[in-house]
Design goal:
Radius of gyration: 29 Å
CATH topology of the largest domain: Four Helix Bundle (Hemerythrin (Met), subunit A)
Number of helices: 14
CATH class of the largest domain: Mainly Alpha
Largest sheet: 6 strands, mixed
Strand order of the largest sheet: 3-4-5-2-1-6
Structural class: alpha/beta
Distance between the termini: 18 Å
Number of strands: 11
Shape: flat
Number of domains: 3
Order of helices and strands: EEHEEEHEHHHHHEHEEHEEHHHHH
Oligomer: single chain
CATH superfamily of the largest domain: tRNA modification GTPase MnmE domain 2
Helix content: 40-55%
């Protein structure tokens, strides 16, 4: 899609820095370089030039890169000015670019949107880029990079090719309905549909875990009042994240601490002590604790030596004897005060979450899951129709076309206009 206007923006973080990059994209990008630097460098070859304003006054000495149309991130002519990272220098260059005819300041995500519109990226890759920019841990980086590299799009294209092959076989049978077709296509079509459906099922099952890697696993610390939950949270966080005291009921709300465990994003939840109480505020905190405990990916129960957890246990739940510094050095005991058992607890949490993370697929978003489930439902419908014989092949072919459209929505070929504004609003202005 050709744009008549040229956009520009600061592509690096605002504020003082060693280097600041201002990006320009559009048909007037080369003209912008000429206006500020006098001449345009050879494509993809950096050139150090003196920048001047319209009156010939010096702006800065900058390294300039120029990319011709079709060879850039956006698919358009692109110029990058690598400036000294002074706020004053950046503002002066941006003002000068804004005074040039045909140039305007970019909107949030507009560079990436142009890359999508020009076919340089598919929608899944755009989402991968957004995730990569937001990545805080190694697992998030690796997952986002897989999507950005086009792995999900390649997978969807493989499924699409198989379904097109299946639909073509059915269409050929329909076209020759009045003639005797020498080959029964049903076995090959059925095999193709089963193969795609099995792959879809595997990816759908991995979306929930992939979303957790994107957004973070939640680990709730639960137990009776004054059992040492907040002290343990502080020990795990390495700072005074929660108030501790000898009085029961100190924690009234859910306190969250974000951590990186072996590359996985984890949010630790310190919850109100579980007990019966007439205190209205504490009751609200306890109800929130119970709600978060049900939704948490993993629960750590702190109990006194003669107690059992109040909740029904789930596979993976961890139970530790509280206040090991007061009650001996049992193997399953932990003390946030002295640190006893804390490393072992962290290792167990990390082991369990790492094991779950291995179940994640390439698809990372609820949107992907819904599209794959729609496709799978159509494939199941098509297989049921196939069992009724060639007379209903036209219905089966239509189900396959619907499944293909569902897969196309993953990479943005169809039905995504309503998503674009929401997706690109999460990008910074210079991306």
């Amino acid at each position: 899609m050709a744009h008549t206007d040229t956009i520009f923006a600061l592509a690096t973080a605002p504020g003082k820095s060693g280097v600041a990059v201002v990006r320009v994209s559009g048909p007037a990008a080369a003209d912008a370089v000429r206006a500020l630097a006098g001449s345009v460098p050879k494509p993809r070859m950096a050139s150090l030039k003196l920048l001047r304003d319209g009156d010939g006054r010096r702006l800065d000495q900058a390294l300039i890169l120029f990319f011709e149309a079709g060879k850039s991130f956006t698919g358009e002519e692109v110029a990058e000015f690598q400036l000294h990272g002074s706020v004053a220098v950046v503002n002066a260059v941006l003002r000068q670019l804004g005074d040039l005819p045909g140039l305007r300041h970019a909107e949030a995500g507009e560079f990436t949107r142009r890359a999508l519109e020009n076919g340089n990226m598919d929608l899944a890759q755009v989402e991968g880029l957004a995730d990569l920019i937001e990545a805080e841990t190694e697992a998030q980086r690796q997952q986002a990079l897989r999507v950005l590299s086009g792995d999900l799009g390649d997978l969807a294209e493989t499924w699409r090719r198989d379904l097109i092959r299946a639909a073509a076989l059915l269409e050929a049978t329909i076209d020759f309905a009045d003639e005797e077709v020498p080959v029964d296509v049903t076995p090959e079509v059925t095999a193709l549909l089963r193969g795609v459906d099995a792959n879809l099922a595997r990816e759908v099952a991995g979306v929930a875990t992939a979303e957790r890697i994107r957004q973070g696993f939640e680990v709730a610390i639960l137990g009776a009042p004054n059992v040492g939950k907040s002290t343990l949270l502080n020990a795990l966080a390495g700072r005074e994240a929660a108030i501790t005291s000898e009085f029961a009921g100190t924690t009234r709300d859910v306190i969250e601490v974000r951590m990186d465990l072996n590359g996985l994003p984890v949010t630790l939840l310190d919850t109100a002590g579980l007990r019966e109480t007439d205190d209205v505020v504490e009751s609200i905190g306890i109800e929130r604790a119970r709600s978060r405990a049900v939704a948490a990916d993993l629960r750590v129960f702190l109990v006194d030596s003669d107690e059992s957890p109040e909740f029904d246990m789930r596979p993976g739940d961890i139970v530790r004897r509280a206040k090991a510094d007061l009650h001996g050095s049992a193997e399953d005991a932990v003390s946030g005060k002295t640190g006893q058992g804390v490393d072992a607890l962290v290792a167990e949490i990390t082991r369990q979450l790492s094991s779950r993370a291995q179940e994640s697929g390439i698809a990372t978003r609820e949107r992907h899951r819904l599209a794959m489930q729609r496709a799978s439902a159509c494939l199941n419908a098509a297989r049921s129709v196939l069992e009724s014989g060639p007379d209903l092949y036209d219905i089966a072919a239509e189900e396959l076309r619907t499944a293909i459209r569902a897969l196309d929505s993953i990479v943005g070929r169809v039905d995504v206009e309503n998503l674009l504004d929401e997706i690109f609003s999460s990008f910074c202005i210079g991306k």
